[in-house]
Design brief:
Elements lengths: L35 E2 L2 E2 H5 L1 E4 H6 L20 H19 L3 E5 H4 L6 H22 L2 E6 L18 H20 L4 E4 L5 E2 L7 H22 L4 E4 L9 E2 L4 H10 L6 E5 L1 H6 L6 H8 L3 E5 L18 H13 L8 E3 L11 H27 L1 H9 L6 H8 L4 H9 L12 H26 L3 H10 L3 H14 L6
Parallel strand pairs: 3-4, 3-12, 4-5, 5-6, 6-8, 8-10, 10-11, 11-12
Antiparallel strand pairs: 1-2, 7-9
Bound molecules: manganese (II) ion.
Manganese (II) ion (MN) binds next to helix 9.
Length: 490
Amino acid sequence: MSEQEEFFAGISKIPYQPTAGPGDVMCFKHYNAEEVLMGRTMEDWLRFSVCYWHSFCGTGADPFGFQTLHRPWNKGNPMESAKRRLCAAFEFFTKLGVKYYTFHDRDMAPEGSTLKESNMNLDEITDLALQLQKQTGVKVLWVTCNLFAHPRYMNGAATNPDCHVLAYAGAQLKKGLDIAKKLGAENFVFWGGREGFLSMHNTDVSAELKHMANFFKMAVKYKEKIGLKCQFLIEPKPKEPCRHQYDYDAMSVIGFLKHFGLENHFKLNIEPNHTTLAGHSYEHDVVMASVFGMLGSVDANTGSPDLGWDTDQFPMDIRNTTMVMKTVIEQGGLQPGGLNFDAKVRRESTDLEDLFIAHIGAMDTFARGLRNAVRIIEDGIITDKLKERYSSFSHGLGQKVEDGSATLEDMEVSVRHGGLQVKILNQDHNLFDSVIGWKIYILTFVVVECICHIKITAAHFIHTLQSEDRLPQLQLYRIEHCKTHTCTMQ
Ligand SMILES: [Mn+2]
């Protein structure tokens, strides 16, 4: 195998071209890596990462159909394919301009017939990964162990009713942590896809939760022993493949960690497609984890809210990315975590070029979200309105509640002496929604429109708006705007 072999021939480094038209899909129109916003480059705010399993191991197979994606790197025996796949991946990372990647142990190197053989495969492939990392400067955002695919894990790994399986998982995890150290991973993720149950009748939930906590404690101990400096993350998901998964959502995991005294050793990796499967809105768990100081990283994807399963689509909705980036900015960034595209091209997307188009579109969507979030925070309208909404806690009895010194007796005295006038506060949801909506859609339009003046025709422009489903709001703005400015697109 030649390491010089080019898998994405004809595609060079993806440029930033803000004046490109909507038909130009092989460039960034919004993501400008070096541009500084609120004292930090876009690259540092967003910390994009490409996931190995979907983009380089995905076959397009689903429960109803066979493989549709035939990739040129899959040639030769499994180890030869693994090396070619790695070279293809690094060619992709560098051409896309992304500094991080994520992988499972078993998608980086094939599982052998024994643990020893699996570990040897992993050693050999990660030697090449280390070499490619040094050559390109691309780093590991996080590593994770696949403790769910092999049949031995069908009843769980850390929560398996058979201790021998838990032991196998522990041995596999030990090697995974060694690999994380070898490759300088900045985080290590635990996703418990099989940690849950189908039926309460055959499950000792209390024992399983304790075993899982003890499994995590062993991981913490080994991490400290080998001097591994990465952040541990747990990724919640409510169901699929299990009927009930223990790491249901952000609040369930935070409760579990606090109950077992693990909260100082772990943060959360939030995947919004899992959040919506749990019945919450897109940004819900990102916000909840952040509020508890537990937001460590984000798996940047989306689902189809009309479906009941995990579709791992590329995020293309600027409303969602705006809300995520607002939280990220407010907590001072995601580092050492990042935005990992745990997303896959559809099985009908068989061209290699689609891997680029999907990632570029998603990166631009997050760049637009970042710009919107910066505007929302900098103009302060929402912050001021929130402050006003809670203003009764800034003085008197409210201040005492705020600092924890108030008592029920204080409350009674205040009410009895008429010192408290209970006002019926207008719940101004519409005002907040309106301000946020204006920031997301209309300000985006101004940018789009400036570009339009230079480059694209009115027909293209309307097409762009229609494709983003923003036409009604934007047409209104356009009419107002054109009254007061010289506009070539009447
Ligand atoms: Mn998913």
